[in-house]
Design a protein that fits this description.
- With 297 residues, the protein is an alpha+beta fold.
- The chain has a domain at 1-71.
- The protein contains five helices and ten strands.
- The strands form two sheets. Strands 1, 2, 3, 8, 9 and 10 form a six-stranded mixed β-sheet that branches. Strands 4, 5, 6 and 7 form a four-stranded antiparallel β-sheet that branches.
- The longest helix is centred in the N-terminal third of the chain and has 70 residues, at 2-71.
């Protein structure tokens, strides 16, 4: 009887040891599975990150290609130094674009002029009156009935010397590359268009180097800008103010939702308008004086 009891206990111990071994094996398998799962998760996250980076590069490349094909010039990227192009068209694109933008900004900030004459002080700067009547009760008189043509001439006169200087600098740049350069007289014009500005330059340029001859006659510099689009809105404001002594801002916003309007009434009867293109942030501000009621005493 004792032997049977001993055998039973021994059998139970052996079965317990086997179960313990199986348990350890299961634990090891579970641990191994968890480790493999973690490794797969890390690999999955790395793969996702790689995919995101590739997609971002493709998006940026597509945007740059879009601008290049649309404007025939490479847009400047903040924080990245741009290499000056060596060909005449690329050089003029690179040089004149920031000059045009600066001039447009100044004209827009001053109310349509580089140096405004009929103007008032506002926030420590001079802002031009584009619709004005000094008499009480009478509606204002539009000072620039063909505003877009005026803005075109204002921009052209402001950048004319800079365009000539760009050719002088280009000549020196090409001579440093070993070219002999001959340039004829220059004629250029400015065109304001929806979403862009065109600087159209006609000038014969002949490059010669070691038997190599290149001839250029026309240069077109396109600058992305909402200058024209904003000017159309300003014209409508001037027209309504001259006719009705008021601009119906809410109704106009329904048809032109891409613009913001700010109408500031001064204490002396003037109105300062600021028109802003929401997407680009470009603004144009100007003053109006009309239909002013005589102050009571």
């Amino acid at each position: 009887m004792k032997k049977r009891g001993t055998r039973t206990r021994t059998s139970r111990l052996i079965r317990g040891e086997k179960q313990l071994v199986k348990s350890k094996r299961s634990t090891r398998a579970l641990t191994s599975g968890l480790i493999k799962g973690e490794k797969q998760l890390v690999k999955s996250k790395r793969s996702q990150t790689t995919i995101f980076i590739i997609v971002a590069i493709l998006i940026v490349g597509t945007i740059l290609l879009f601008f290049l094909l649309r404007t025939k010039q490479i847009p400047r990227i903040p924080g990245i130094e741009q290499q000056i192009p060596k060909d005449p068209q690329g050089y003029l694109d690179f040089t004149l674009e920031p000059i045009v933008r600066k001039s447009v900004e100044t004209i827009s900030f001053n109310g349509g002029y580089i140096t405004p004459n009929l103007s008032r002080e506002f926030n420590r700067t001079r802002v031009a009156y584009l619709c004005y009547n000094q008499n009480y009760y009478y509606s204002c008189i539009n000072q620039e009935p063909v505003l877009i043509e005026h803005l075109k001439q204002e921009l052209k006169e402001d950048i004319e010397n800079d365009v000539e200087q760009a050719f002088i600098d280009m000549k020196k740049n090409l001579e440093d590359q070993g070219y002999k350069i001959e340039m004829g007289a220059m004629k250029f014009d400015v065109e304001l268009m929806p979403k862009k500005i065109l600087i159209d330059i006609n000038r014969n340029v002949k490059l010669t180097r070691v038997g190599e001859v290149k001839n250029y006659e026309n240069f077109k510099i396109y600058v992305l800008s909402r200058f024209y689009d904003i000017a159309v809105v300003v014209q409508e404001i001037l027209s309504q103010e001259a006719r009705f002594c008021n601009f119906e801002q809410q109704g106009f916003t329904l048809f032109y939702p891409e613009f913001d309007f700010d109408k500031f009434k001064t204490g002396d009867g003037d109105t300062i308008y600021t028109v802003k293109h929401k997407k680009t942030g470009e603004t144009f501000r100007f003053a109006i004086r009309g239909c002013v009621v005589r102050p009571a005493f």
